[in-house]
Write a structure and sequence with these properties.
little secondary structure, 6-stranded parallel sheet, 2 helices
């Protein structure tokens, strides 16, 4: 392995006698590849179970179908890597960089991804079920048909991201940031996301049934037709939010701020809705119940 790595580094440096590392299909379980320079290496279908690849440079590497279950990838750099159908289940990937990577049909079940970076990544049909995504960053990423259910999202960032048919069922996380994101047909039912930031976010056909979103920021958002039924929206902010045909039946809006009668009048409320004033709905125009009582 030492010779392969040395030859690959020479190849990267343009040496005349050198070779590109091609470890396709090899079983390299428990290997110590800490800080290895494997930029642009071909690792298609390789197996790295329990391998130590902490700090490794895997930028633009070919990892299609690779299995890295339980591998140590803390602070590894996978910028621009091909990760289609790769398996990172139970991996330790805190601080890993996967910006501009192709993450299609890839699994990160129960992976430790705190402070990982997926900037401008293409994520499609991926599973991050139960992953620790504390302070992970997904700025400007395109995320489609993927599953984040039961994951931890404390202070995770999705600024400017585009998400479609993404499942966030039962996630937990304080201070998740979706500012300027576009969400289409995403399911946040039973999520617990206090102090979440959805300002200037466009949500189409979103499902927040029974979600806990207290102290959330929905200012200047477009939430037309979104399902907030039985959601907890206590002390949330709604300044200039578009709530046309939004379902607030059974929702708790106690102390919600910056709501107007026009906004609530265009939403759906019922007798189980708790209005900002603390009274039960349905909301009646000119009742003043859009104002919270301090």
């Amino acid at each position: 392995m030492t010779d392969v790595l040395r030859g690959h580094v020479d190849w990267l440096n343009g040496a005349s006698v050198s070779w590109r590392a091609n470890l396709s299909g090899l079983t390299l379980n428990d290997q110590n590849l800490q800080n290895a320079r494997l930029t642009k290496a071909i690792l298609t279908g390789s197996t790295f179970l329990d391998a130590n690849m902490a700090g490794a440079d895997l930028g633009e590497a070919q990892l299609t179908g690779a299995d890295l279950e339980r591998a140590q990838l803390t602070n590894a750099d996978l910028t621009g890597a091909e990760l289609t159908r790769a398996r990172f289940n139970f991996c330790w990937m805190s601080g890993a960089i996967m910006s501009e990577a192709r993450v299609h049909e890839t699994t990160f079940r129960k992976a430790h991804l705190a402070q990982a970076r997926f900037l401008d990544a293409s994520i499609r049909e991926a599973s991050l079920w139960g992953a620790d995504l504390t302070e992970a960053a997904f700025h400007q990423s395109h995320i489609f048909e993927s599953d984040f259910s039961e994951s931890t999202l404390d202070r995770a960032i999705f600024i400017g991201a585009r998400l479609q048919n993404v499942r966030f069922y039962g996630v937990t996380g304080e201070g998740v940031n979706f500012t300027n994101a576009k969400l289409e047909s995403c399911n946040f039912s039973s999520a617990e996301m206090t102090h979440a930031n959805f300002s200037r976010t466009t949500v189409q056909s979103g499902n927040f049934y029974k979600a806990i979103l207290s102290h959330g920021d929905f200012r200047n958002s477009r939430m037309r037709g979104v399902d907030f039924s039985r959601a907890n929206l206590e002390r949330a902010r709604f300044g200039d939010a578009d709530l046309f045909s939004t379902d607030l039946r059974g929702a708790d809006l106690t102390g919600a701020r910056e709501l107007t009668g026009d906004q609530l009048g265009k939403a759906l409320t019922d007798r189980d809705t708790i209005l900002p004033s603390g009274k039960n709905g349905p909301f009646l125009r000119y009742s003043g119940d859009e104002r919270c009582r301090r």
